[in-house]
Amino acid sequence: MTMLGVITAIRAEASCIVSRKLPFNQMVHLSDDAAIWVCGMGDSAARQAAEGLLEGGVTALVSFGIAGALDASLRSGDLVLPESIHVNGEMLSVTENWQDQLKQLLPLGLTVVGGTLAASKEVVSTETAKRELANVTGACAVDMESGAIAEVAVNAGISFIAIRAITDPIKFSPPTELLRAVYPDGSVNAMRLMSLILQRSVGVGTLVRLGRGMRAASATLSAVVRHSDGNDLGNISHALNLHLNSPCQLPTNN
Fold first, then answer.
1. What are the tens digits of pLDDT across the range 176-186?
2. Which CATH architecture is the domain 4-244 placed in?
């Protein structure tokens, strides 16, 4: 039986899949053929989650969550379904047939782009840094988890896709200072956040804009789940079953 493993960095991403609060940094079964792991932000956390899911019997991986735009045409709420992940100087391909099946389930009004997703080991916090990363990688968007998940999938010879919604456009990024007020699961330390505001390290306007971007991205991720299933990604798992029962293209190095 196929077992689908979904990895999210933060609880806000996971809440687009399942409404109940999930335990942090462990495998949670959503159904007989799907599991999820809320791992925390970053490459190392995502790698640990992917390897943990493999040990738990998962046979396909999904990187699910938010991303920052590297392409000036992308807006908050746009959906990125990349064909490849740029990580450590290499291009790792997603499982094309599975991705194509997912695209066919999505609503017509959703803006969906392909291309390359760049992996970064740190928050890309300025427009200049975003444009430089785009020039180096040719990517349209960036996140900190998909690269590690793709590498684990490639090394294990299993299928992999990334589902990423844009939060911040190229001209706006979350300030790195904000991370001082954020727990690994994405929840906020209110006292630290208030201190950052009082110190003027983080502006209220910045928080408002971040909130809008997150709401737009969450609405898109929820729409993906709703149109592919409506109940804990089950139909995405069904689409995967269809894919694996036909000639498949596993993720490979380009």
1. 888 889 998 99
2. 3-Layer(aba) Sandwich (3.40)
